[in-house]
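__Record contents__

***
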Amino acid sequence: MDDSDLRFETLNTQVALSTRLFDVCEVQRRGPQGVDSTFITLRTPDWANVIAVLPNEAGQPCFLMVRQYRHGSERLVWEFPGGMVETGEDPGLAALRELEEETGWRAETSRLLGSSNSNPAFLTNHVSTYLAEDLHFTGHHHLDQNEFVRVGLRPIEEVQSQMGQGEYDHGIMMMALWWWEHRRPDKV
C-alpha cells in the first residue's frame, strides 16, 4: 500500500519548553499537499508498568496496586505500579524497579505483555506493560519526594468490572489491563 499521500515531512523541531517530565516541541512539517504547518508534540521518556497477581488473605487472586493522588484529575486513583523509564534503562528493568520502589515487592522475572503509544497525536513515547513473576516481599520502599502511595491488593474481578470508571479510569491502566487479559499465561 502506498501511503505517500498521507505522510508529513519533518522540516524542523524546536523545544519551546523543557520540564522535568517532558519537552514541549514545536515541529514544523510539510504536508502531503506541500503546505508547511507547525504542530505541538510532547517528547517524554517511555513509561513502564507492571502487573503483579497475589492472593489476598482469603486466597482470592488480586492485583497488587497502588492508590495515589493524580494532579491532572485532582483525585485519588488505583494504578498498577509504574513510572518513567530512565535514559538508557531497559523498560523491563524499569518496571521491576518501580514495582519494588512503590510496593516493597520484588519480582525475580518479568514478561513483556505489550507496548503501545498512549496518544500518538502528540506524545512521542511508548508505555510497556510487564507481568511480574516469582514475587517476594522485601519491604523496601524507595518513593520519590512527592510520591505518596497506599499499597493494596485489589480483587481481579473488581478491577475488571470497574475499569474505566471512578477510581479505575486511568487510560494507561486500561491499556495495561487489556494487555494482561489478552496475554496472561493461561491465555498463551
In short: The mean pLDDT is 94.
